[in-house]
Amino acid sequence: MAHYLSVGKHQLYVEECGNKEGIPVVFLHGGPGSGCSPDHRRFFDPATYRVILFDQRGSGRSQPIGETQNNTTQDLVSDIEAIREHLEITNWLLFGGSWGATLSLAYALAYPGRISGMILRGTFLARESDIEWFFFGLKRLFPQAWNRLSRNIPNCRTSADLIGWYYRAVHGDDENLSLQAARSWSGWGNHMVHWHIARTKESSPERATETNVQRERLLAKVKIETHYAYHRYFIDENELLYRIDSLPSIPVSIVHGNFDLTCTMESAWLLHQAIPDSRIIQLGQAGHLIEEPAMISALVEETDRFRATLKSARSDL
Fold it and tell me: Residue 295 CA to chain centroid, in angstroms?
């Protein structure tokens, strides 16, 4: 079942599947700007879980696509709560990866009484060091790819220089420059998440066969991504770790791939250390992508494990 929920000028695409009377879980996608897909339903036993998926503001099937006005982390946190209230859910399990893990933590800190647990993949804490690592530190490992990313930017010395140039280019009035910048930005991200995976072809379509819809969606996605990166994800420096003590005592699983260079293992470990009794699962054969076989297996194992824990908690109410 799918519908749209109005939140100001935005229309959120919201989808619900599984067992209407089951354990509520909300899937928080990454990006920002990516959106959900049918494959994201497969992490949950449909007989046990009431699964809610939604596309965040400006992303996926939400409208208007690529819209950055009234689009902040705080807005997204409010949207999650609005969806919970609309669906009349008392509390729910948060399932988020990468930016979705960041958003899970932000929501949990804002509404600690509304969460039954968290499963987090590829932890991103949105610290300055995390941003600097992805946009500048990785050039030491991938100098050719970084040269393609930065070659048009004069005096590019910090991540702020690079992000600022792309933000202005993508959001500017020059349509050709905007699209060129979007392709370059997206190319860097794709290279980083696929670096350890052998590929016979690039994941993006050839320009000769690229449709107008594909170009529109690429530009919209990168507009959202650069908007959040430029504004440092609307999160104060180290805010998530500083406030983590306010979390209630809930089950938390942190899943991270050893080949994940997009979001470092350090972030997952620091979060694990900061949350008493949290569980950390390190995957030796996985990177950042949710669709990698080892990652799929680990995440399904965690939702199956939570099934027993949360069923028991519900029966005690």
Answer: 15
